[in-house]
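Dear Dr. K.,

Following up on our conversation at the group meeting, I've run the structure prediction for Histidine acid phosphatase-like protein from Karstenula rhodostoma CBS 690.94. I'm pasting the input sequence below exactly as I used it, so you can double-check it against your construct before we proceed with anything downstream. Let me know if the numbering doesn't match what you have in your notebook.
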Amino acid sequence: MRNPRALASAWLPLIAVAQNSTIDLSWHPPSKTWINDLGQALNSTGTHGFYFNGSALPPNSSYGTYNWCNMPHVRREEYPEASEEYALEYVEVVHRHHKRTPYASNTFPKETYRWDCNDEGLFYYGQPLNPSGNTSASAYWSVFTSDTNPFAPSGFNGTCQFPQITREGLDDSWQHGKDLFGVYHDLLGFLPNEIGDKVTYRVTNNVITSQVAGILINGMYSPKTPTPLRIQPTGIDSLEPQYPCPAASSLYSSYGVSSTAANWTKHLNEARPLYNSLDAISGVASDSTDWHKSFDHYYDNLSARQCHAKSLPCSINDASKCVTQEQADTVYRLGQYEYSFIYRDSPQSLQAAVGSFGVFIAELAQNIRDLVSGKSPVIYRHNVAHDGSISRLLSILQVDVMVWVGMGSEVVFEVYSKGGYGKNKYIRILWGGQVLESSNPTLGKVDMLDLDVFLSYLDGLVGSNASKVVEYCKS
Ligand SMILES: *[C@@H]1O[C@H](CO)[C@@H](O)[C@H](O)[C@H]1NC(C)=O
Ligand SMILES: *[C@@H]1O[C@H](CO)[C@@H](O)[C@H](O)[C@H]1NC(C)=O
Ligand SMILES: *[C@@H]1O[C@H](CO)[C@@H](O)[C@H](O)[C@H]1NC(C)=O
Ligand SMILES: *[C@@H]1O[C@H](CO)[C@@H](O)[C@H](O)[C@H]1NC(C)=O
Ligand SMILES: *[C@@H]1O[C@H](CO)[C@@H](O)[C@H](O)[C@H]1NC(C)=O
Ligand SMILES: *[C@@H]1O[C@H](CO)[C@@H](O)[C@H](O)[C@H]1NC(C)=O
Ligand SMILES: *[C@@H]1O[C@H](CO)[C@@H](O)[C@H](O)[C@H]1NC(C)=O
Ligand SMILES: *[C@@H]1O[C@H](CO)[C@@H](O)[C@H](O)[C@H]1NC(C)=O
Ligand SMILES: *[C@@H]1O[C@H](CO)[C@@H](O)[C@H](O)[C@H]1NC(C)=O
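The predicted C-alpha cells came back this morning:
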C-alpha cells in the first residue's frame, strides 16, 4: 500500500520548489520482504542468502550479496558508470567501520575462551604538528591484565579492547579504501593524486572509526605526511550521532526498543523459548533487561565470533551445550526484522531519524552547496561512522528494503553536472555500490535526480542549518 496522502502525517507538509515539482516529505513504508515479515523472521530457517561467517564470500556468490562481516561497497568491478554527458563534481561517502570484537556490553558474563589482539597495535599519542618541534615515538596500546589486579575483566580474557577493529577488520578497511580509489581516481580520474585541500576524512568520537580511517587512507593515498581526521567535539558530534535530542530518543523508545507497544513486544514474546535456551548457555540472567529488550546483544555476540571464524559459544558449566547454527540464524533474522521495524516500518521512524541525525543531513546539504557555489574546494568527503549513523541515513532516504547495516556498509552521494560546469546539477546515491531505491516517490530510484529537488527534500525535513531539528529536539 503506497498512498502518500493517506500516510502523510500532520507535521510533514508537501512543499513546492522552483522546478514546479512537488516534494513529498512524508514517510512511505518499505517493500514487503521476508525481513519485515514476522512469521518468516521467527519461523523460517537459514538466513535467506545473507552471509555472517567471514569477510570473504564463498566462491560463486555475487559481490552485492549481503555480508554482515564485510558489506558490499563501490568498487571497479561492479561500478555503474554514469553516461558520458554527466560530469562528476562532488562525492561524499558515509560508511560503517569494519569488523571488530564485540562491545564489552555484548559479551557473556563469562566467556569460554580468550580473544587476543596482539597482532596489531592501537596507536594513540599526541604529537606537535610544527615540523621543527619535538616529535613522538610511534607508541601503541598493549592491553594486559595482572594477577595482582583482583578485578578480572567480564566477558573475554585476552589482549583486546572491547570493542576494537580486529586485524582482519583493518585489512577490510584497507581494501575498502583501495576499491574506492580504484573507481574515483583510477577509473574516473576524479580524485587528485594527492590529498591536498580537495579531500577530507571525518571520524566520530568512538576510537574504532579512527582505527579504520588510518589504514583506509593508506589504501587510497599512502600519504607521506600526517593526515587530519576531522572530528567534532564530544557530546555534539553529528556523525556518531551524539548531540542531544531527547525528543527523538523518547520517540524511538515509544515504539521500538524498550517500548511496550504490542507490535514491538510481539517478536520478543514469541522468541521467549529461544531466549531461554540462549540464556541457559550464556549465563545471562533471564531478567536481564539489556539482553531481552532486543536481539542486539546476542546478535553482536554471535556474529562477531562467526565473522572471525570462531566457534559458537558453549555453556561455561556444560561444554556439551552450545548455541546451534539454527539458533544463531534465527537471531540474525530477528536482528534484520528489528532494524527494519525501528528504522523503516514504523511510521514514526522518519521523524525519529530526522531528529537524531538531521544535523548531519544539514551539513551534507551545506557541503554540496559550498562546492556548487565555489565556496569550498573540497570535492571528496569521507565519513567513517556507525550502524546508528547509516541506519538513520537510510531511514531519512527511506530505503526500500532495510537491513541491519553490516560492517563497512556504505552510502555514497555523487553530484553531477550536465551541459558544462555551472549547468544543471544532478544527484545519484549508491547503497552497497548500486543505485539506491527509495520508497518515497520524490526520491524513487536516486539516479540523476535534480539536485534542487534533493536539497529541497533535505531542507524540508531538517530546515536550513538544521533549524527544524533544533526546534524538534527541544520539544
Ligand atoms: C506545474 O505543474 C502542474 C501539475 O503538473 C501543472 O498543471 C502546471 O501547469 C505547472 N505550472 C507551471 C508554471 O509549469
Ligand atoms: C511461529 O510459529 C509458532 C509455532 O508454530 C506459531 O505459534 C506462531 O504463531 C508463529 N509466529 C508467527 C509470527 O507466525
Ligand atoms: C558460511 O555460510 C554459508 C551460508 O550459510 C554456508 O553455505 C557456508 O558453508 C558457510 N561457510 C563456513 C566456512 O562456515
Ligand atoms: C562456480 O561456477 C563455475 C562456473 O559457473 C562452475 O563451473 C563451478 O562448478 C561453480 N562452483 C561451485 C562450488 O558452485
Ligand atoms: C558473547 O557473550 C558472552 C557471554 O556474555 C561473552 O562472554 C562474550 O564475550 C560475548 N562475545 C562477544 C563476541 O560479544
Ligand atoms: C580469565 O581470567 C580469569 C582470571 O585470571 C581466570 O579465572 C579465568 O579462568 C580466565 N578465563 C578464561 C576463559 O581463560
Ligand atoms: C622540546 O621541548 C623542550 C622542553 O620544552 C624545549 O626546550 C625544546 O625547544 C623543544 N624542542 C623543539 C625542537 O621544539
Ligand atoms: C505499531 O502499532 C502502532 C499502533 O497501532 C501503529 O501506529 C504502527 O504503525 C505499528 N508499527 C508497525 C511497524 O507496524
Ligand atoms: C547557515 O548559517 C550560516 C551562518 O549563519 C549562513 O551563512 C548560511 O547561509 C546558512 N545556510 C542556510 C542554508 O541557510
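Two things stood out to me. Residues 4-47+71-98+166-241+346-473 form a domain with the Rossmann fold fold (CATH 3.40.50.1240). Residues 281 and 315 are 4 Å apart (CA to CA).

Best regards,
J.T.
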